[in-house]
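A protein record pairs a chain with a discrete description of its three-dimensional fold. The shape at a given residue is found from the number at the same position. Here is what such a record looks like in full:
>
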Amino acid sequence: MSSTIKNQSNLVGGSDEIDLAKLFGILIDNKIKIIVITFVFAVVGIVYALFVTPIYKADALIQVEAKSSGMGTMLGGDMADMFGGGDSSSSTEIEIIKSRMVLGQTVDKLNLTTQVTPDYFPIFGQGLARMQGAQIHADISRFELPNTIAAPASYTLEVINQKKGEYKLIDSDGNHILTGFVGQLSSDHGYKIFVTDIHANDGDMFTVSKRTRYDAIGILQRNLSVSEQGKQTGILQLSYTGPNRLEIAKILNNISENYFLQNVERNSAEAENSLEFLKKHLPEVKTKLTAAEDKLNNYRQANESVDLPLEAKSALDTMVSLESQLNELTFKESDISQRFTKDHPAYISLLDKRKTLLAEKARLNKKVEKLPKTQREILRLTRDVEVNQQIYVQMLNKVQELSIVKASTVGNVRILDSAQSASAPIKPKKSLIVVLSTLLGGMLSVAIVVLKAAFHRGVENPDEIEAIGLPVYASIPESSWQLASDKKNEKSKKNHQDTIVQSLLAVANPADLSIEALRSLRTSLHFAMMEAKNNILMISGPSPGIGKSFVSANMAAVMAQAGQRVLVIDADMRKGRMERQMCVDSKPGLADYLSGRESIESVIKAPGIDNLDFIARGAVPPNPSELLMHPRMKTLLDWASENYDLVLVDTPPILAVTDPAIVGAHAGTTMIVSRFGLNPIKEIEVTKNRFEQNGIEVKGCILNAVVKKASSTYGGSYGYYNYSYVNDNK
């Protein structure tokens, strides 16, 4: 596997394996970040669990039995079949309970189109009030808007005087609408409001929302849950959730009662309709009966009470029986036609029976025609009386039966358990929220760390640099002293103070591990420069902010301390700041010499270190690259090479500007600096290739600001060791 591919996936130890040791090291390196993120999520979970509004649950139990009027044995088979029997599935009853017919009655009775909520401080106000035990509420039993305003609409109810129960209503634009008192109906400008109770302090405000009936029913449907207990038991459990324990129990009880009452009304509706029909036609039948009796009596008086012979009387009884059966068939047909079509066997049987009875009636009529005229007339009148009388008595019996059915209808639904709400909220589950939020924080922090490591392409292992054919001459540890010094100087600069702390590490803290690494580099460079064409060493790098100036200045100081005469040139005329480490002025400098304004001797400064001289960048020129190409640059380097043991030139990054390529043509040795964890291996390789394209050989690389990390330790990389002096004379 190439080093480039290996660097792009730092967690991969092979082509298809994850380096668990390196992964473990990464987690150890970022333990503070993981702990902090996990702690923040845990705190957020605790705060949410404490301040979120608790939701309570109320439930009720209803039994749905097979439909029966309870009068089957009393009324006989036909009436029992007509008003009883038939099952209603639980799924059907569940849909009835959740219908707008049932829930709409609850909305109307409890005035659920009006919602009153106290105005708390945003986010935490309601939770704080609940924890403090503050019970602020207002009850409104009636709230009507003008016809010109349609719901939804929002208003503000402000308490003026709590003792008197005085309040005022304000619209969303801040306009005063009306002033009222608790327990009195207040109306003005088409608004009507009846506040039954207010428990609040003077100045407290409530938001009064008026929503449509449809929206209120929708809220009930979303919060209402109906399910069958067991399979085909007919036991329905109703559950309703909400933030107010008393209110949800009240709502659920009302829903149960509405469902129960509509069930009773539905079961008695057929009996009621039939009863109304019979009572409407009963007077007509009675009138016909009276008229038939009067005709019979008048005819008997006119013919001096004619008696019928036995044969005629037998025919009369038969005809009356036939009429009674035909009337009975008429009742049955009205019922059976609602359930079956004329092609049904039961309907066909009824029609055949009627046809037989009509044929028998026609035969008797022919037989009666053979009787004497007086007997025929008496027979006809007597038949009319008895038939009407029988119809009248039958209708009276039906009226009594239906009245009993209506009075005894109890429906096939009964409420087993009325609604009650639990004392403990069903959500939030505080302990579960805290645990889950903590786990989420832990997993998220680990994911962030792992993803950052997976996409992080900065070199952390010298082996990766050497894999591209570039030797690593030194790994310089990151200096905590240098970081602290830079912070002090930056703070002094912001506060406009003149006190500058000595920031050259080789002078201020020569025992630092970074300086020890530079001493090792000094030895390596001695052998590396033995075959060079001159004693000029150029330091460059791929990008800004990698510590080139730090390495150049301190390495020069280390070499000067070893007895060599060293000249350091800050050739970064754009953003060079090495004069800060040398504690000298930046002017005059290199730019001033190259532009011809100063001589060589005038730009050389002594930073106060034996055997070390320094040339700052000078005034920032508009054309740094052109100045570096001037013959004066070669003259300066040739002069310096003759008068110093080592000439160290610090240049800007090669990938940003072309200046290093110009200077590199005069240097005998070129070294590049890369920063630990910052420069990708591809960037270092491009830097090397860029120099080679300009005919400059890069001798090696210096890995700067190396941090001792667990990921490198567990991953098999090598680092550095602390072997500083210990003072035992205490």
About this structure: Residues 245-302 form the longest helix (58 residues). The radius of gyration is 53 Å. The first strand starts at residue 56 and ends at 64.
